[in-house]
Predict the 3D structure of the following.
Amino acid sequence: MAGDAGFTLLEIVCVVAIVAMLAAIVLPAFPRGTSRTRLNAYAMETARLLKDDRNAAIRRRIQIATRVDATSRTVQSGSTGRVVRLPGDIVVSAMLAAACNQRLAGKTIDFFASGMSCGGTIALTQHGMGYQIRVNWLTGGVEIVPVDAP
């Protein structure tokens, strides 16, 4: 009975179907955290938004305030309204000026027509790695600095 050895097509299809169902159940349980590359992309996107607001302030000759809300994990452009939303697995913190240009600042980084700003630092960290987006108060320049999270 040489024809009885091996698997039938039906048996193979059943095994593949069972493996697919198990994968559909198990895979969503694996954590899908933000990778270092994606964290870097969020830092670059945030820095780009800040640079765009600085350039808009210079070009339009007006003061523009970029809103930073660490609690809701958002950074909102004062010139375009564009929002960078950061995922829940990234720790967001901000050191911002309490007062700037003789008014309360608190949750904003203000850019002036001269190119200067109120300055500030936005930190994005996760699992011992992270980036600081630093805004220089004198020049309004924006830089990204990699840091080891505590």
